[in-house]
Design a protein that fits this description.
The complex is a heterodimer of chains A (191) and B (303).
Chain A: H1 3-8, H2 24-35, E1 37-47, E2 50-51, E3 55-56, H3 59-66, E4 74-79, E5 85-90, H4 94-110, E6 117-126, E7 135-140, E8 145-149, E9 151-153, E10 156-157, H5 159-169
Antiparallel strand pairs in A: 1-5, 1-6, 2-3, 4-5, 6-7, 7-8, 9-10
Chain B: H1 10-37, H2 41-57, H3 59-66, E1 69-71, H4 78-91, E2 97-101, E3 108-111, E4 119-123, H5 124-129, H6 132-147, H7 150-180, H8 183-230, H9 233-243, H10 245-249, H11 255-258, E5 276-277, H12 285-299
Parallel strand pairs in B: 2-4
Antiparallel strand pairs in B: 1-2, 3-4, 3-5
Helix pairs in contact in B: 1-7, 1-8, 2-7, 4-6, 6-8, 6-9, 7-8, 8-9, 8-12, 9-12
The chains are: A alpha+beta (191), B alpha+beta (303).
Chain lengths: 191, 303
């Protein structure tokens, strides 16, 4: 924020950083070799619905906006307990999953919904269950950084595993350095 | 003071006594400075005494307020009360009041002028993160602070610094005001007051360092007593690992709930100082873990 924004108490809406998303497929290889975690094939895009340049209040509005080819992707919209919308995508191929999610992002940004994007989540599950449990890679659009989230119970997370993910991915992914930003996403709809 | 079943560590005691003696020497120097100044001696003592007394007497309210903690009844937090009940029976000490601070930072503190007026307080963050056994270890550490009367000790220890600060300020005012009118007769006085001001700054700094050292020794002593009380140093060690360092900084707060206040997101300061706040004015994690694993060996008879 500039001086005048501070003086007048204005905040600029933060535009999302989308490009670091594409670092994930490389990191997925490391996750597989080092921690025995493979992509679960599920991803989610979390955003707050509301009025942008156009009204997108109903799920149908969002779907028509995204204009997915029928059959090419399994895409659904869900609303969670906290009132956030989730665009849920399923695709066995991680590269395609990232690409689809990115194009959905761009569409939302084009329609003025960029500041409302909260995070993207990609699921990873143990290659040999139960293993050490599943990990979600969370991408923060405002920061352009990633962090791992490994929920193990309703309100508990496996911090040891999360820190291990960080130590392995340090060079592959821009990992969020400020650990206090590694917020939980309890009960998220991405498996 | 009723004797609690909490043992002490000889080496740690020696270090604490030495630190205490050094603080006493500082007290004498500052009194000497006051006598040299000749004026306003009682005034300084009265003000410092009043400040220390209120800090001591209202320590529980000050600490609870600064951590935004509230007292909880056994009906509201049955688990917390049950753990403290059990520990107080074990240690043979009166049960303190219990408070909870609704913040996500994992922390706990004990405060209050005497074991009878004490409050033991845990944050929501620490209760969410630790198992019952680990929470018990942390509460045993806090109850040890109460049994050791750490609020009283640290209040008295921090008194030197406060006194030195007051003397320095008065000397500075004296120099500024005295310098204004009848300069000739006061030239000498002004120089003395400048020296007094510098000396009191040095004393403040030394007193601060000594107070911090004493605080760290008290933390180690409370670690030790708490671990002996529950009989398992390793549980306190694992609790420490889980709430300090990297793991302690990973939040339990939901991203979607925190999103609205991201703009105002700053690292909240922990209340330290005289409230014997766990895990902030503190020996390093390694030191505490070393001491605990040594204790574990002693308890197992491999001393």
């Amino acid at each position: 924020m500039g001086l005048f924004d501070t003086v007048f108490g204005r905040t600029k809406q933060v535009q999302p950083k989308l490009d670091n998303l594409f670092a994930l497929p490389t990191a997925a290889l490391t996750l597989r070799t080092s921690l025995d975690l493979v992509p679960s094939g599920h991803a989610g895009l979390c955003f707050k619905a509301g009025s942008g340049e156009i009204e997108v209040n109903s799920d149908a509005d969002i779907m028509s906006l995204l204009n997915f080819e029928a059959g090419a992707d399994a895409a659904t919209i869900a609303t969670d307990d906290l009132g956030f919308k989730w665009l849920l995508l399923t695709n066995e191929d991680l590269d395609e999953l990232v690409t689809r999610l990115h194009s959905a992002n761009e569409t939302l940004v084009e329609h003025g919904l960029g500041p409302r994007l909260l995070c993207a989540v990609f699921g990873f599950s143990p290659a040999r269950p139960p293993g050490e449990g599943a990990v979600k890679m969370v991408y923060l659009f405002k920061q352009g950084s990633w962090y791992p989230f490994a929920p193990i119970a309703a309100q508990d997370r496996n911090n040891e595993l999360e820190l291990r993910v960080r130590s392995f991915l340090g060079t592959d992914l821009p990992i969020e350095k400020d650990l206090s930003r590694w917020m939980a996403l309890w009960g998220l709809p991405v498996s | 003071m009723s004797k609690s079943n909490i043992e002490s560590d000889a080496g740690l005691n020696v270090r604490m006594v030495i630190t205490g003696l050094l603080l006493l020497v500082l007290y004498m120097i500052i009194v000497g400075v006051l006598l040299a100044l000749k004026l306003s001696f009682t005034f300084v003592i009265v003000i410092a005494g009043a400040m220390l007394f209120s800090q001591y007497f209202f320590s529980d309210k000050i600490a609870m307020f600064s951590m935004r903690a509230h007292e909880v009844t056994a009906a509201e937090e049955p688990q917390l009360h049950a753990i403290v009940d059990r520990l107080c029976l074990l240690a043979n000490m009166p049960k303190p009041r219990i408070g909870v601070a609704e913040i996500d930072i994992p922390n706990a503190f004990a405060t209050g002028r005497s074991p009878k007026a004490a409050v033991v307080c845990a944050t929501r963050g620490i209760m969410n993160r630790l198992s019952d056994e680990e929470l018990e270890a942390v509460l045993a550490h806090e109850l040890s602070h109460v049994a050791h009367r750490d609020v009283a000790v640290m209040t008295i220890a921090s008194g030197v610094g406060m006194l030195a600060g007051l003397v320095g300020r008065m000397a500075m005012w004296g120099a500024m005001l005295g310098g204004g009118d009848n300069r000739n007769s006061n030239d000498n006085n002004g120089a003395i007051e400048l020296v007094v001001w510098l000396v009191s700054i040095v004393i403040s700094i030394v007193a601060y360092l000594l107070t911090m050292a004493l605080s760290r020794y008290r933390e180690l002593a409370a670690d030790r007593s708490g671990a002996i009380l529950i009989g398992k140093p390793s549980v306190l060690a694992s609790a420490l690992v889980r709430i300090t360092g990297d793991i302690g900084r990973i939040p339990r707060t939901d991203l979607r709930k925190a999103e609205g206040m991201n703009a105002f997101f700053f690292a909240p300061a922990l209340a330290g100082g005289t409230a014997a706040s766990l895990f902030s004015t503190h020996p390093s994690l390694e030191k505490r873990l070393d001491a605990l694993s040594k204790l574990e060996r002693e308890l197992n008879g491999h001393a």
